[in-house]
């Protein structure tokens, strides 16, 4: 099976030696996305605004691969503090359609931002 890098137009360039997404068959593995614009500038000064910007970046990678948010099978959510856990649940319900994906949420020391999200996505068959 071949691996295909997915690099969305208008997205922030990777900060290291990785692809924003890797497609393998009908699976897409989305690298950790944070609340950054295309110039790698931080977006948002609250947890809610950063979380929504981060989900938008995840969606940008998924869309570039031909999918949408409904295909997310699993997310990893990395929060600077678990004090934001309840708000994260509310935003996740708002952004992701049911049935909701499997999820792991952990507290980590993030460098200058409040949230990072990675994902595994089931993509539609290619035409």
TrEMBL record:
InterPro entries: RutC-like_sf, YjgF/YER057c/UK114. GO terms for molecular function: deaminase activity. Pfam families: Ribonuc_L-PSP. GO terms for cellular component: cytosol. Coiled coil: none annotated. This is Enamine deaminase RidA.
């Amino acid at each position: 099976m071949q691996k295909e890098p997915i690099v969305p137009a208008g997205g922030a360039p990777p900060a290291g030696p990785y692809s924003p997404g890797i497609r393998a068959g009908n699976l897409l593995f989305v690298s950790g996305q944070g609340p950054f614009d295309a110039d790698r500038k931080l977006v948002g000064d609250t947890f809610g605004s950063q979380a929504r910007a981060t989900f938008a970046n995840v969606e940008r990678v998924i869309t570039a691969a031909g999918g949408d948010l409904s295909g997310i099978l699993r997310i990893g959510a990395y929060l600077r503090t678990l004090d934001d856990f309840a708000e994260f649940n509310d935003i996740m319900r708002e952004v992701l359609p049911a049935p909701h994906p499997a999820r792991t949420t952990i507290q980590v020391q993030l460098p200058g931002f409040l949230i990072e999200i990675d994902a595994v996505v089931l993509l539609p068959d290619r035409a």
